[in-house]
Structures are given as C-alpha cells and as structure tokens.
Amino acid sequence: MGREWSNEMLKRFLAVAIAGFLLQSGIPPCGLGAGASRPASKVKLRGYITARIDAQTVAILDDHIHFNTDGHITLHESGGDRTINSGDLAPGMLIEAEGVWTGRHQFASEKISVDAGFLEKEIHDSAYLQEEPAEAAKIAGGELAELKADGEWLLLGTRTKREWAAPPAIVEASVTGAPPSGPQPPDTPLAGGLAGHRLSYTGVRGPDGKITAARIELGPPAPADAYKMPHGIQVAPAKDPQTGIDIIEFRRGKKVDGRMKLFPVPEVQKYVSRLGDSLLPAGAKGTTKALEFRFFVVEDASINAEALPDGTVIVDTALLATVENEAQLAFVLSHEISHVLQAHSWREVHETRPQRIGLLIAGLAAGYFIGDLGIFLADLGMASVVNGHQRELENQADRLGLQNIIEHGYDPRSAPNFMKIIVEHYGNRSTSKIWSNHDSSVLRGSFLTVQMMKQYPDRHFDGKRVSSEAFDAMREAMGPVKVE
C-alpha cells in the first residue's frame, strides 16, 4: 500500500512539473489527465505581419496567428474605427491579436486590431544624415537624384519640392570630400559636409521599395548639447584603486558616481572595439560636437547593449555569448551607433517628453560598483537607454542599422534572425531590458523582416558576409559566461 501511494505521488509530481514547464514555455499543458490541465489565459500578441500563410492564418516571424474568416478585425483610423475583412490582412500591417496559445508558435485569435498608421500610403519622417549624399550636387541643382537617408532610399524627381538650403561651399565639400573654405555657420558639422544635417521628407513608397519624395527639407544639425551626458557626467576608463582591475567610471569632475568592471579578457575588448570602429558611418565625424565612439564589454548576464549620448557603447558578455555570428553583432552595434548619431536621448527629452528630466543623481552613493545599469541610468534621467526608446525611434535605429550592415557587406537577414533567438530564449517572459523584452523582440524582428521586404524586394543576399575567423577567435577567448 505504501509503495502504491509513493508511485501515485510520483505521478502527480511529474504531472505538476511538466505542466509548470509547459506553462513557462507558453504551451498549454494539454493531455496531462483529468484535473491536470487548466484553461489557457488570454494574451495579446503584437507585431508586423511577415507572411500570409492561408485564408485563416498569418505569421509574425515564426508565430502563426489563426483566425476565423468571419472573425472580428478592427481597423483603427484617425477618423474612427471600422471593421475590415480577414482577406485584407497582408504582410507589413501592424496588428494586435487577442487570444490563446494552442501550441508552440501556434496562436488562436478571437479578435485582431490593425494599426492604421502603417497602412498610410504617405510617409512623413526626419533623420540626421549619417552619410554624405552621393548626389548632393544633383539634389541641390533640382535634377533627378537618389538619396540614401533614414535607412530608406528616396527618389527625387522634377516635381519634388526641395528646401536644400545648404551653403554652396558645404555642398561642394560633400561632393569632393574636402573641407569647405571660408567661415561657416556655428552649427556646421565638424567634417564640413552634409552628414549630420537633419533631413525631413514626405513621400510614397513604390513597389520597388523606394520612396518617391514629394518634399525634402535640409535642416540644421543637432546642437552640440545633444551629445552630452546629463549633469556633466563623463565616462572614462580607469583602474579600481583597491584591486587594480580595469573599470569604467561615471565621473562629475573629481567625483565618481559609479563604477563598472570591464570583462578581463583583452582579446574580447579589442575585437568588439575594432568591429565597432569599422562600422562607423561618415556621420560620426559630421556632428557639431566631437564624438569619440568607445566600445566597452562588461560582465553581465543580460542580453543587452547600451549607447550613451557621448558615443560610449556598453556591450554585455551575455549578448556576445548569444549572437550566432559577426553579422548579428554588427547589426547590434550599428543599431546602437544610430541611437547616438540620431541624438535619440536628446530628442526624447526635447521633442517627445519636454518636461521629463531625471534629477535623482543627488541620491547616488559616490564611487559604488553599479549592480544594475538600468537603475543607475534611470537615476541620471536616461532610462530609455536601457529600457528602449519610443517605438518610432527604435524603428529608425533598426532601419539605419540594417542599411549600415548592408553597406558593409553583411547579410542583413541575420538581424531578424537574432530577434528570433531572443524570442526563443525568453519565451513569453518580459523584463525591463529592451533586448530581453519578448514583446519588443517580436515587434523589432517583424519590423526588420518587413523593412527588408519593402525596401529590397528583389535583392538577394546569398554570399554576403555572415561571420569571420576573428569572431570565432573572440568567442573562444571569451569562454563560457552566464546568460539569464
């Protein structure tokens, strides 16, 4: 009797353990016997449609969303909501599906909401030029031209309204690469060309993925303050006075507000720095304040990277252990570089949240080792650096990061593949980190997939660079590290 009771208890223990594992994995615990299963909780899945599978199924990356053809699909527009047919769902639409997970990557949707913003034919946006325009003279002269900007390709025709108000000397410098002669306005980028200037544009995307521009406007570059750390903070490499280990310090004058230990393997630090430097676009030298991009690897179990306004990029060891190849790492670094060159931290404060400035620095303990970089940066008023910028700014950094690795000969398909890795690693669990946030990774991975579909519909990237011997050597030198 005692042995039979033990076996029954063992069966129940195994059933509960398996059910817990399946629930953590986002898979309903079906087939575990009476009383062992529970109704799946309703959740929401948000992302860009990356494929139409059949009449009742669309895909967001690897997730298949199933729905009834007569189900409730609402289109949100500025003039109000209206119901659309299931046949109207197409790749590129941003949707939010509400329902339950029925299996691995299988989602049964009861209702779907479609964001009308992504259905608008006319595109309005702005960005700081990260490259010198290849056809600056044609653009200034009103001729037919193409312009690479904001991670997009703009087509300029005779009907394009142009406010290309750069002085002739700067346009000439952009074309020739030589510094302009004579005195220049105070907001002129340091390199003297057009890289760094703000471009605003309006247009319509064509079937070839390019945007026919109705209007372009060349504006001033970001002010020098856009690249400064808040509260006069400076980031500097140093050695810990007690242990002698290599660190970086967050300083205000002679006061040290925080320290971080650098990963103690020189080969890893050098590889990441060399790769980061090789990816810097012309805009890195075209800012109104001299930037020194520096790439530091810190020992951290979070899959993350952070870019600070002054050009400091912090890379966690867990991220290096998670990326599968150099192309994925090149995309991550290009994304972070774009956050700096697009002045996203400054823009969020001055354009999207004008009254929201963190002033909690007075409460920091001087000189302590930073346990959670997110909390530390939040105390400096830079929570978005770790938690993620607003969606339109993240999309912009992704577009520019994608275009940058294409320009450097990498296979861009590695970028959405990396997002799939993050989704698989974290499942349905969300955290405060942008790289480890499931929802953000689904959104970003599906956005990148759609961006490639739109912008490069006929391009094939077979044969493009994916990895390198230097990447393999870095991974071997790094050894095993903790990944959470």
Overall tally of structural domains: 4
What level of helicity do the residues show? 25-40%
Task: Give the overall silhouette.
Answer: globular
Would you count the extended β strands for me?
Answer: 20
Strand content: 25-35%
- The N- and C-terminal alpha carbons lie at a distance of 44 Å
Count of DSSP H/I helices: 13
Structural class comes to alpha+beta
Residue-averaged pLDDT = 80
Low-confidence stretches: 1-6, 9-36, 354-366, 428-438
Biggest pleated-sheet summary: 8 strands, mixed
Radius of gyration: 25 Å
Q: What can you see in these coordinates?
A:
- The protein is α+β, with helices and mostly antiparallel strands.
- The protein has four domains: 1-38, no CATH class; 43-119, OB fold (Dihydrolipoamide Acetyltransferase, E2P) (Beta Barrel), CATH 2.40.50; 122-221, OB fold (Dihydrolipoamide Acetyltransferase, E2P); 226-478, no CATH class.
- The protein is built from 13 helices and 20 strands.
- The protein has helices at 2-24, 136-140, 168-176, 266-278, 317-322, 326-341, 344-352, 373-379, 383-387, 391-407, 414-426, 438-455, 469-478; strands at residues 43-48, 51-54, 57-60, 63-66, 72-77, 80-83, 94-103, 106-115, 122-128, 145-149, 152-156, 161-163, 197-205, 211-221, 234-239, 246-252, 255-261, 294-298, 305-307, 312-316.
- The strands form four sheets. Strands 1, 2, 3, 4, 5, 6, 7 and 8 form an eight-stranded mixed beta sheet that branches. Strands 9, 10, 11, 12, 13 and 14 form a six-stranded mixed beta sheet that branches.
- It is globular.
